[in-house]
Amino acid sequence: MTIKLYKINTINELVCYGAQLFDSASLFYGHGTDNSMDEAAYIVLSLIHRLPLVDDSILDEHITESDKKAIVAVFKRRIIEKLPAAYLVGEAWFAGLPFYVNEHVLVPRSPFAELIDDKFTPWVDVERTTQVLDLCTGSGCIGIACALNFPQTAVVLSDISEPAISVAESNIQRHALANRVVAIQSNLFDNLPDKKYDLILSNPPYVGHDELSTLPDEFYKEPQLGLDGGVSGLDLVHKILDESPGYLNDGGVLYVEVGNTDLALQQCYPEIPFLWQDFEYGGYGIFMLTKEQLLEYKPLFQAKLTWLNNE
């Protein structure tokens, strides 16, 4: 049944109207939702400041004409411009927390959220983890979520993009963490302070050029700097593997997300026992290695980088 805009009076009716519009358009869902109804609900509830949704009865509340007009305009932008919904509402949720986002950072959607909620059990001792580094931080969501889950930690957020660092700094302020979290513009480890960490996390660009050329339109609205991992998708990953043991304390661990390039990484280093993480709520492509393993296999990482540099 077609929903008429002039007959819409409640939040739920407006959500259904949005889903109806989205179903008639060629949209991709994958930046926080996976279907038209959830996408429409996310836009509506964000713009009327009712997230997180704690009571479904809210959906039966009256929607004002001014809110309806503003939200329908956003629905239309979602269809015409193919912008991810998070950019349209200026907010994304990660690990149960709200983060400011704009087109200078990727929309948070990493399965790292589940690892953080589980406090990286059993590989990380929360009581002994006092220094955390989030490489390629983007919005800062991974490092900030760690800071809030590990209240005794100091966290460094690092990104090569100055506009991304500005977004991360906004989120540090939003979550009142300026006393424990700092954002630093750096090309991986280049500009970081001379210190070591108990835990290094990274969600670097890891999309290879073949995959990048086939992505839906919505992904091209995100900063390509945050997606493009070179021809193989692994350009930065090789560097992180090589350099990270020098920045880890003894007993420290490294977690890196490589998504769809997980098989390519394993094929590059068949000798290395990457510990691939399992996720109850969906997701894949995050591995863990200890400092000791990184040191053991460092000759392989260096040989790979030498070969790539000489290609």
Architecture overview:
The protein has 311 residues and is α/β, with parallel strands linked by helices. The protein has two domains: 5-89, no CATH class; 104-310, Rossmann fold. It has helices at 11-23, 36-47, 65-81, 85-89, 112-117, 141-149, 162-174, 209-212, 235-243, 262-268, 291-296, 298-310, and strands at 91-94, 97-100, 131-135, 154-159, 181-185, 197-202, 248-257, 275-276, 286-290. The strands form two sheets. It has a seven-stranded mixed sheet. The chain starts with 10 loop residues before the first helix and ends with a helix.
CATH fold-level name of the largest domain: Rossmann fold
CATH class categorisation of the largest domain: Alpha Beta
The structural class is alpha/beta
What's the tally of helices? 12
Helix content: 25-40%
Low-confidence stretches: none
- The average pLDDT score comes to 96
CATH superfamily of the largest domain, called what?
A: Vaccinia Virus protein VP39
Distance between the termini: 60 Å
- The CATH architecture of the largest domain would be 3-Layer(aba) Sandwich
Q: In what range is the share of β-strand residues? A: 15-25%
| Biggest sheet descriptor | 7 strands, mixed
Give the topology, please.
Layout (H helix, E strand, L loop, with lengths): L10 H13 L12 H12 L17 H17 L3 H5 L1 E4 L2 E4 L11 H6 L13 E5 L5 H9 L4 E6 L2 H13 L6 E5 L11 E6 L6 H4 L22 H9 L4 E10 L4 H7 L6 E2 L9 E5 H6 L1 H13 L1
Parallel strand pairs: 3-4, 3-6, 4-5, 6-7
Antiparallel strand pairs: 1-2, 7-9, 8-9
Helix pairs in contact: 1-2, 1-3, 2-3, 9-12
Which features would summarize this protein structure in a list?
single chain, 311 residues, alpha/beta, Rossmann fold, 7-stranded mixed sheet, two-stranded antiparallel ribbon, 12 helices, 9 strands
